[in-house]
Design a protein that fits this description.
The protein is of the alpha+beta class. The chain is built from four helices and six strands. A six-stranded antiparallel beta sheet has the order 3-2-1-6-5-4, with helices on both faces. The chain starts with 5 loop residues before the first helix and ends with a helix.
Length: about 150
């Protein structure tokens, strides 16, 4: 199902007349609109040399979590582990930062540029346990495209 979105992702990322932030914003909005269980889609990036993540472009409800220390929450853990993190049930996670009471599950995929973890794509879902290996592979594809424009 997600493979059908790849050409749309490529089209959005290739719009060189737009800024990188505008392309990422459009990408977030596209993914949120096209995947029924992607209720919040956003990027977090390393905040300079600080051991924290800073919220970048996103689509969905506003969040208070604009800065996340490394190690804190799912996003902060991915900043340290450099590994995909799929959370089928957020209530089962001790180190979870709740963005909304309606969020049931989350997937975070690290974004690498020249082998360095510089950020991540974060997706919250109000659907319990919707994320599959297909989501992981698709979001790795998305991040590889994003890495090319950064």
């Amino acid at each position: 199902m997600l493979d059908r979105l790849k050409s749309g992702v490529e089209t959005i990322l290739s719009q060189k007349e737009l800024t990188v932030d505008d392309r990422l914003q459009n990408l977030c909005e596209y993914l949120k609109a096209e995947v029924p269980y992607y209720d919040w889609v956003g990027f977090y990036f390393r905040n300079g040399e600080k051991e924290e993540l800073k919220l970048g472009p996103y689509a969905g409800a506003p969040t208070d979590h604009t800065l996340i220390p490394f190690g804190k929450g799912i996003c902060g853990q991915v900043a340290v582990s450099n590994a995909n993190f799929v959370v089928p049930d957020v209530t089962a996670q001790d180190n979870y930062i709740a963005c909304s009471l309606t969020v049931k599950s989350e997937i975070v995929i690290p974004l690498f540029v020249e082998g360095k973890n510089i950020g991540q794509i974060d997706i919250d879902s109000e659907t319990p346990d919707p994320f599959t290996e297909e989501d992981e592979r698709f979001l790795e594809f998305v991040n590889a495209g994003v890495a090319r424009i950064l």
